[in-house]
Amino acid sequence: MRALTLALALAACGAGGPAVAATYVFEADLNGANEASPNASPGFGYSRLYLDTDAHTLRITAEFQDLIGNTTAAHVHGPTAAPGAGVAAVATQTPSFVGFPLGVTAGNWDHTFDTTQTSTWNLTFINNNGGTPLGAEAALLVALEQGRAYFNIHTEVFPGGEIRGFYAAAVPEPGVWALLIAGFGLAGAALRRRAVGASA
User: Fold this and answer.
1) Cα 117 to chain centroid, rounded
2) What domains can you pick out in the chain, each with its CATH number?
3) Which of 44, 63, 103, 155 has the smallest CB count inside 10 Å?
4) Eight-state DSSP code of residue 119
5) pTM of this prediction?
6) 18-29 residue pLDDT tens
7) Which long-range contacts (CB under 8 A, 24 or more apart) does 7-13 make?
8) For residue 111, which phi and psi values (nearest 5 degrees)?
């Protein structure tokens, strides 16, 4: 009975909505030192990636500044052979992300893709992962969780990439922490009630 009470309390912890469980969040710091051939670019940036495997959406944000060259393209690449190192083919949309600021040395960008659409992906990445967009979605998630996917900004001066960063799991947002704490509180309350009932 105690196990059932605990299970119910933990289930209540997740009652905040299935989107929390299905949304994976990753972030990357972008700089020249992170490139496969490190460079001395003063450029830097940040990217955040949200992959929702229930809604089948991929939201990517990026901000960057102080690049030496004007931007020519930006992509997510993966998977590399090893976490946090090496190079990989483009996994996402080519020749560059739709709406990504090109011909500039600073900017920001925010776009949400439908992962069921072929246009979200590099066709080769689809073909290498089951031949479907959802196969590509699943493969990207694995690469992200293993630290083998990176965001790369290419420029005229550095065609192979001026700044990049490998994605890592983001620290939970304050709302997620609040949900977890509330869930632990419910579990503790349920156990206390059970202990009081057993001693009566």
Assistant:
1) 18
2) 21-173 (2.60.40)
3) 103
4) G
5) 0.77
6) 444 589 999 999
7) 8/190, 9/183, 9/186, 9/187, 9/189, 9/190, 9/191, 10/183, 10/187, 12/183, 12/186, 13/179, 13/180, 13/182, 13/183, 13/184, 13/186, 13/187
8) -145, 145
